Amino acid sequence: MSTLTVTKSSSEDALAPAAANGPVRLKAPFARSELEALVIRYGSPLMVIDCDQVRAQYRALASALPGVDLHYALKPLPELTVVKVLKTEGCFFDLASGGEVDVVRAAGVLPERCIHTHPIKRDSDIREALRFGVRTFVADNADELGKFIRHRKRCEVLLRVAFRAPDAIVDLSRKFGCQPESVPELLAVAARLEIKVTGLSFHVGSQVASPSTYVDAIKACGRLIKEANESGIAKLHVLDIGGGFPVSYGAAMQPINDFCAPIRAALSALPPDVRVIAEPGRFIAAPAGTCVATVIGRAVKNGVPWYYLDDGVYGSFSGQMFDHANFPIDSLRSDGERIPSVLAGPTCDSIDIVAENVLLPPLEIGDLIIGRVMGAYCSASATDFNFIRRARVLPVNVTVEIG
Ligand SMILES: Cc1ncc(COP(=O)(O)O)c(C=O)c1O
User: What b-and-e string marks burial along 339-356, b requiring 16 or more CB atoms within 10 Å of the CB?
Assistant: First the structure.
C-alpha cells in the first residue's frame, strides 16, 4: 500500500483531492457523494480508513495517559499506511507475529520502538523478531521462559499476569497470563535460567466498560514490582498496561480522558522509576474504518425485504463473529419509508447474515450500505471463503508524505 494518488475524471469530483494527483482528502463524516465516488474509482466492497481519525484517536489517548508510551497493537488493523501515519506521530508498536514484523519493517520503524507481546511463541517467531532487532518479549509460564535460554544475551522479558475484567467484551486473561501469586516463583525460574525479566504486563481484555480492572491490576503489579525489587530476585522497572481501551459502537461512552482518570491516579502511585507502556489497538483503529458495501441482489421472504451485499460475515463483518461487535449500519439512500429488513453477505453459507430487523428504506441493486466504527478486527479477520474477494482497504486523508 502506498500513498493514494488521484487521477481526475468528472464523476470523481466529489473526492476533492487536495491537489491533482495528491492524496484523497475526505471530510468526516463522509458525504454520500464522496463514498459513491470512491466506489466508482476503487470498486466495492471498500474499507475506507480515515487517517485523520487514526491520528485523532492516538492523540486523544496519548493526552489521556501522559507519560505512557503507546505501542500501537497491529492486530486489529495491520495496515502499512496506518503504521506509517502513527510512526510520524511518535508512536511505538506492539507485534505478535512475523507478518507484523514485516509490516513495521516495511514502514521503516526502528526495532527498538517495538515489543513482541505474544505470550506463546515458536522459536522461529522469537528468531524472526530478534533478527529485526526487537529485544522485549512476553512470557507467562516456565516453558515459555525456557524458550529464551538460547537467546538470553539478546533479550529481556516481561511477565504477563492475568487480571480478568468481568465487563470486557473479549476476555484475554483466560487464555493468557499467570496468576499474580505465581509471579515470585516465575521470577525465581527466570533468575535460575539467567533470563532477564525487566517488568510485568497485563491485558484486562478488549473493549472494557470500566477502568476498574486496570486500577486493580496496576495496584497489584505495583506491589509485585516492589516485592520483587526488595527481595533482590529481579530488577523490575517496566509495567505494560496492555490494550482494551473502549470505543463507542453507537451507545454513549465516557470520553477517553474521563475513562483514564482513575488509571492516571493509579499510575501516579507507582515508583517513579517504573516506565509505563500500553498496547492500544481497537481505540486507535476502530473509529477510523468505514465499510462500504453494495447491494448485489434482492428478495422478499414472508413480506420481509432481503438485500444481499458484496461483503458479509466472512469478510469485513467478521468482526461480528470474532469480536462480538455490533456495528452501526445504514444505507446511503435515505428516501422512502424505513421497514425491518435483512442484510445478507455474498457467500453461499446461510450463516452469512449481517443484520436482521434493520430499518431500511426500499433499496435498489447498486445502492450502498455503510458500516461505521469498523477499523478494528474487521478487515483483519476477513477471509476469502467462497473465493470471494475481501474488501479493498483504502486509507484516505493520509496527508503526510509517507512514501
Ligand atoms: C497482547 C495484546 N496486546 C494488545 C492488544 C490490543 O488490544 P485492544 O485492541 O483491546 O486495545 C491485544 C488484542 O488482542 C493483545 O492480545
Answer: eebbbbbbbeeeebbbbe
Distance separating alpha carbons of residues 55 and 78, to the nearest angstrom:
15
CATH classification at residue 388: 2.40.37.10
Whole-number Å distance, alpha carbon 7 to ligand 1 midpoint, is 38
Pocket residues: Cβ below 6 A from ligand 1: 73, 75-76, 94, 117, 172, 203, 206, 242-245, 279-283
The rounded Cα 309 to chain-centroid distance in angstroms is 25
**Co-location of 128 and 250 in the same domain:** yes
| The pLDDT value given to residue 4 | 36
Of 323, 346, 351, whose CA–CA distance to 45 is shortest?
346
**382/243 same-domain check:** no
CATH number of the domain residue 92 falls in: 3.20.20.10
> Which residue in the block uniquely carries the three cell numbers 465499510?
291
Relative to the CA of 201, which ligand 1 atom is closest?
1
CB 319 within 8 A of CB 327: yes
Burial 207-228 (b: 16+ CB within 10 A, else e): bbebbebbbebbebbbebbeeb
- What is the distance between the alpha carbons of residues 141 and 28, in angstroms, rounded to a whole number? 46
The tens digit of pLDDT for each residue in 16-35 reads 544 334 567 777 778 889 99
Query: Exposed, middle or buried, 146 (CB in 10 Å: 0-12/13-18/19+)?
Result: middle
HSE (side-chain half, CA atoms, 13 Å) at 254:
16
Of 83, 186, 109, 174, the C-alpha closest to 142 is 186
Q: Are 93 and 83 in contact, with CB atoms under 8 Å apart? A: yes
Determine the 3-state secondary structure of 152 from DSSP.
Answer: helix
List CB contacts of 235: < 8 A, sequence separation 6 or more. 198, 229
Which amino acid is present at 385? F
Examine the pLDDT at 66 and tell me if it is beyond 80. yes
- The answer, as to whether pTM is greater than 0.90, is yes
The one-character DSSP state at 178 is B
Helix, strand, or coil (residue 257): helix
Å from CA of 378 to ligand 1 middle:
14
Asked if 197 and 239 touch (Cβ cutoff 8 Å), the reply is no
The helix or strand, by DSSP H or E, that contains position 298, with its residue range, turns out to be strand 289-301
Give yes or no for residue 401 having a pLDDT over 80: no
Looking at the CA of residue 96, tell me the nearest atom of ligand 1.
1
